[in-house]
Amino acid sequence: MKKYFVSLCCPILIAAAIYSTSPVAARVDLSDNDIYIIASYIEYYADGGGYACRTALGAVAVNRLENVLFPSTARDVVLSLGYSGTTAPSQASLAAARLAADGYDPTGGALFFYRVDDLHAEKRHGHYV
Asked: Average pLDDT of 52-56?
């Protein structure tokens, strides 16, 4: 049976179909430069969000790296996620990127995320749509 994961962390909504409840996936070998690129994207999109938000964003990037439907390099993956900036990552974002590369995935395999402010809905309840 397919379950769905929806998480609202910072201003980001992360959704994925879940087939497993394990938050740990296979480890991905990434260079220090790849980690830096992913951490930079995390820093930009986390927008002051907590560590849970950062680890979820990192997991989305790594999930895309492992999926044949998406680019196979960290640089191209973050470009596909809409990030093309040069934000300097914090230590928290670097740690979240390393954790994602080590296989930690609290999203259950999410490949997409949405900024809550970008979602169009007729009704909103606080941060929830």
From this structure: 90
Which residues pair with residue 12 across a beta bridge?
Answer: 9, 115
3-state secondary structure of 88: coil
Q: Which of 52, 56, 27, 58 has the alpha carbon at shortest distance from 40?
A: 58
Mean pLDDT on 61-65: 93
Q: Exposed, middle or buried: residue 11 (CB in 10 Å: 0-12, 13-18, 19+)?
A: middle
126: DSSP letter: T
Q: How far is CA 81 from CA 10, 33, 60, 103, in A?
A: 17, 18, 9, 20
Average pLDDT over residues 95-102: 95
Write down the domain spans for the chain: 3-118
24 bridge partner residues: 104
Fold of 3-118: Arc Repressor Mutant, subunit A (1.10.10)
Residue 34's alpha-carbon distances to 1, 26, 128, in angstroms, are: 35, 17, 33
